[in-house]
Amino acid sequence: MNTLPSLRRRQVLAASVAAMALPSFAQTDAWPNRPVKLLVTSTAGGETDQIARILAQQLQATLGQPVVVEAQGGANGMLATGTVAKAAPDGYTLLITHGALVQNEALRPQKPYAFSELAPLAMLATLPIGFAINTSSGANSLADWIRRAKAEPQRYSYASYGQGSSGHVMGEILKRAAGLDIPHIAYRGSPPAAADLLAGHVSASFGALSVLSPHVPSGRVKIVALTGTQRNPRFPDVPTFAEQGFPALNLEAFTGVLAPAGLPKPIANRLTQEIQRIVKGPELGAKLSDIGYTATPLGAAEFDAFLRADIERWRNAVQTNQIKID
Predict the structure, then answer these.
(1) Same domain, yes or no, for 240 and 149?
(2) Mind listing the pLDDT tens digit for each residue in 3-37?
(3) pLDDT for 191
(4) pLDDT under 50: residue ranges of the chain
(5) Which of 58, 95, 107, 224 has CA 20 to 30 A from 115's CA?
(6) Bridge partners of 205?
(7) How many CA atoms lie within 13 A of 64 on its CB side?
(8) Is residue 139 domain-shared with residue 235, that is, in the same domain?
(9) For residue 49, which of 191, 203, 194 has the smallest C-alpha distance?
(10) Is 78 left (phi over 0), alpha (psi -120 to 50) or beta?
(11) What is the CATH number of the domain that holds 137?
(12) 98 within domain boundaries
């Protein structure tokens, strides 16, 4: 009879399979056992980078390993996004991004990654986009600036924080709705666009409120409109575009954290829980409020649903307004 040898063969085979599975379980149980990298889709010093550094500091305290922030701006966030999408799904490479993620889906069919290669972990916040003007033209409101830009288009332009960015899309929607024919000037981030607005090199700029607002006390810059559906508590005197007759400019931006698709569930769940805890905490919550954000601590499934719906919102805006990028 071959019963005993057959039994032994089955036992050996089962032990081999179990041994092969051990490293995977061990890696998950031991995570993290080395530094975690958090890539930022914008330039160093911007508000997404500032948020990333607070998040990294608090994640580091709870994970027991360094969380290293790397600002990798450029190509409207596609450089950092592509790096994370192609990284190993082991919990050591994460992405903190903003609205550029969905705008790229709406505007750029050719990208160095696919949306399906990313796994949403947690949403942090939503935010309106500000529109500021240089007051040297004599304009004091959105309507006044539009009137002057229509009368002398050669003297006017608007800036955004990147080709294909939310500011660029919003600017083209505004141009179409207001009947303007002025050029768009793309910068690599909100800070250089705001600096040139202050200097008078451009007559208006879309940008982050935290970047635009420090220039307001100079008297040379005035924030005259915000995107979104309601006024921002941090800037209660600034009306929305919708209040001023431009309801199509009601889209908001967001910031959130993603990982490479295929991240083991125990690691993904822990990261989601820790990020949500940090967003609800006092330090990051205060920072978000201070720069005009609204804390929105969504979990992985809710964030994924938000992203998919937001992609459709931006895609519809792009198609309706016939917006294209070079």
Answers:
(1) yes
(2) 445 545 555 444 444 444 444 444 566 999 999 99
(3) 87
(4) 1-4, 7, 12-26
(5) 58
(6) 132, 159
(7) 4
(8) yes
(9) 191
(10) alpha
(11) 3.40.190.10
(12) yes
